[in-house]
Design a protein that fits this description.
single chain, 17% strand, Nucleotidyltransferase, domain 5, two-stranded parallel ribbon, alpha+beta, 3-stranded antiparallel β-sheet, 3 domains, 7 helices, 5 strands
């Protein structure tokens, strides 16, 4: 919002972003959040691992190198490390309220895991007739069973083009 402040009135920006002018000015004087600091540290660790491996490792091998140096992360941030191994986490987000309305965790990313999350979202939100369901082109979301479930629920489907890096952008913080 700070960059757009040069081109737009503060009142308009605050109204669109849903923040007060006091909140905007307070955020300008605050330092980076703890999460931003952790992400900065993680980026440094990843760059160091990339240099150690002469840029020749893919994500899985890079993950193992980081683990050997005491840094545990998932290859995709949707994987969660536990004492018993990695769990895959899937969620459904209402883009209007920006709230997670359904989620599920399992050992593998399967069609059933995605369906479980969808059903929890339906329980949470109630009627979903006419809602737009957007996803990437993962095989779980393209499966006949999942698409039939969306049709039965009265939801419309939307998928971005192949290789669109913005497909999962709203879910990255999940």
């Amino acid at each position: 919002m700070g960059q757009m402040r040069l081109d737009y009135l503060l009142g308009v920006l605050c109204r669109i972003m849903g923040v007060s002018a006091c909140g905007f000015y307070a955020s300008c004087s605050r330092g980076p959040s703890q999460r931003a600091q952790e992400e900065g540290r993680l980026e440094i660790e990843i760059r160091a691992a990339h240099q150690r491996t002469r840029g020749t490792y893919g994500p899985e091998r890079l993950q193992r190198d980081l683990a050997a140096h005491g840094v545990r992360i998932g290859v995709h941030m949707t994987y969660v490390p536990t004492d018993e191994g990695w769990l895959y986490r899937v969620g459904h987000k209402d883009l209007c309220t920006r709230k997670i309305v359904g989620h599920a965790m399992g050992e593998r990313m399967t069609r059933n895991l995605v369906i479980e999350s969808l059903l929890r979202a339906v329980e949470t939100t109630g009627s979903c007739i006419g809602l737009l369901h957007h996803s990437d082109k993962g095989s779980q979301y393209c499966s006949h069973e999942y698409r039939k479930m969306l049709d039965r629920l009265g939801m419309k489907t939307s998928m971005s083009g192949t290789g669109n890096c913005y497909d999962n952008a709203p879910m990255e913080s999940f």
